[in-house]
Amino acid sequence: MNNKTDILIVGTGVAGLFAALTFPKEKEILMITKSDVESSDSFLAQGGICVLKGAEDYEAYFHDTMKAGHFKNDPRSVEIMIRSSRDIIKALVDYGVDFEKQDGEFLYTREGAHSKPRILYHQDITGREITSKLLAEVKKRGNIKIEQNVTMVDIIENNGEAAGVYAYDKEGNTFAITADYTILASGGIGGLYENSTNFRHLTGDALAICLKHNIALRDVDYIQIHPTTLYSEKQGRRFLISESVRGEGAVLLDKNGKRFVNELLPRDIVTQAIFEQMKKDGTPYVMLSLEAIGSETIKSHFPNIYKKCLEEGYDVTEKPIPVVPAQHYFMGGIDISYNGATSMPRLYAAGETSCSGVHGANRLASNSLLESLVFAKRAAGEIISGYKKSNFILHDDIPKYDIEKDNHINKQMILTEIERTEKNREQ
């Protein structure tokens, strides 16, 4: 492995990939990922990606985002995201992303807490469509190298500035990677929870490392529970039943087959209603009926969900399916500026591991991919505009890490910080 690079990007989801593609081709870029390149939550996103449909939609889109976030959002960040959305979509289309169209025009779907349809999608695998096309473009670039199964364990700090990271490979060999600039795009914290839609290896490593270095975090107690994942008694990641299913007409039913909530309310409100209904019914799940959507639409718009449910023994075109809330998304994270900068010079962050303030206390559906792309591009842009070579030379011995011990400590640090933040907010 090349242990010296111009830009180091930790993570290969949409934020990391889009940032890498934003840099000029003369910059040497190294991307590392804790697992393989397809094991990022970006591949799992189902519903779609929001876009400002036109100037007349701005106020409604802004209000929908703020209201869903309980007005705890940073209004300037929300504005930046919305006004950047059309350029982001154009860039994705230029990279070959195929959004659903009819007669040459984009089709839009609607999800919970949106006042109107403004979500572009590709069947029910929008995240896979976007991420795979970005990954394919990255692989064409001779200046970008990806190393898989490499885990970051610490930041290299030089006189208060980031100078790269310490990492280990799948054989447990620890090494240093030095860089002029580092971007953390390493995903969320779902692996800390028993029930989550996230990949299990996403355990918030970057947050724990930032805590060690006194790098500012923000809103780490803002953790989103998704109302509808397929109920299963099996261990492992929970399968998401996209919110766009409810946007297209699916309804939630109690044990008697009666509807008990408006399915298009914000996620946290629907989640609370489901928990209350489960307690009232004495059941570990509620039912979701897709009958109103129709068999043909289910199979064309939601083929992945249809297939997965069949594998679990449920034909969603014929009967309701059992669903239960599960941890889904992390709205907090490493505090970043409007251009992705952290409180440590030469260190940037983007995607779910960061907190731009866009989502507030509850993320509006399908804003995640957009927010990740917008601020990843802005981070790369700021690095380019003020680029200065680092004169750092690594002389010290590389620290030794007890992988199991350090992973346990990291998880405890994050959970303790979440609990501390919750208590401070209550006071």
User: How do the SSEs run, as a string of H and E?
Assistant: EHEEHHEEEHEEEEHEEHEHEHHEEEEHH
The CATH topology assignment of the largest domain is FAD/NAD(P)-binding domain
What Rg do the Cα atoms give?
21 Å
Mean pLDDT score, rounded?
95
Which bin fits the share of residues in helices?
25-40%
* The CATH class of the largest domain: Alpha Beta
Describe the overall structure.
The chain has 427 residues and is an alpha/beta fold. It folds into 2 domains: 4-222 and 331-426, 3-Layer(bba) Sandwich (FAD/NAD(P)-binding domain); 227-326, Succinate dehydrogenase/fumarate reductase flavoprotein, catalytic domain (Flavocytochrome C3, Chain A, domain 1). It contains 11 helices and 18 strands. It has helices at 14-22, 58-68, 75-94, 126-140, 205-212, 243-247, 267-281, 295-301, 303-311, 368-385, 403-426, and strands at 4-10, 29-32, 49-50, 101-102, 105-106, 119-120, 144-147, 151-158, 161-168, 174-184, 217-218, 223-230, 251-253, 286-289, 321-330, 333-335, 347-349, 354-355. Strands 1, 2, 7, 8, 9, 10 and 17 form a 7-stranded mixed sheet that branches. Strand 1, helix 1 and strand 2 (29-32) form a beta-alpha-beta unit. Helix 1 packs parallel to helix 10 and helix 2 crosses helix 3 (75-94). The chain is globular, with a radius of gyration of 21 Å. The relative contact order is 0.20.
